[in-house]
Amino acid sequence: MDHATSDLKEFITDLVIPHQRCNVNIIPDHITMLEGTKIKKQLSRKRRAHKSSTLNRREYAALGLNTLPTKQMKYEEALPLHQLWKGYVREHLRLREGAQVPQVHDARYEEFSRKLVKLDLHGAKLKVLQSKCSTLEGLAGICVMDTKNVLKLLGKDHRLRTIPKSECVFGLKVGNMEFTIFGQHLNIRPAERSVKKIKSFVQPFM
Hints:
Number of helices: 6
Structural class: alpha+beta
Strand content: 15-25%
Shape: elongated
Oligomer: single chain
Helix content: 25-40%
Largest sheet: 7 strands, antiparallel
Distance between the termini: 68 Å
């Protein structure tokens, strides 16, 4: 049975009152589709209506569904996300209480630093340590959105700020350990970053 015949069967069945639809027996060999018929036009309209119910990427962006409100979010509302992130990062990095960062000469350092760069940063507390734009330096907050090119940080003053990755060097704290991460090496979507093969660009400091 081709797609058009299947659609026609569905269309004809829909014309029958609901409690009688189970008794409908349509034989595909008895269905004839004539060019320009009313039923065929109705089917075409039905298909177009079905397709139009799904938003494309441009319509999605036009409605603002891929953005966050800049003034309606509270810092306290992001703290539960940060708590979840702390549990996630300890499991991802396999950190135990009192664990130490592998030293640069340690054989475990390369693997550890790659895992750190691949982290999903949603919920992480980040601080801009250096930036080509001096006004960004010192800005800090909880990451509530991580896109290909920017991080959105919600500060304690409840302001949501957009920070370009490639322009900045970020400080990240995990427990009693602090790390420096170069933003230019985070320029990839989180889902892609987690599986991409990357080099070590993380410098630990205590």
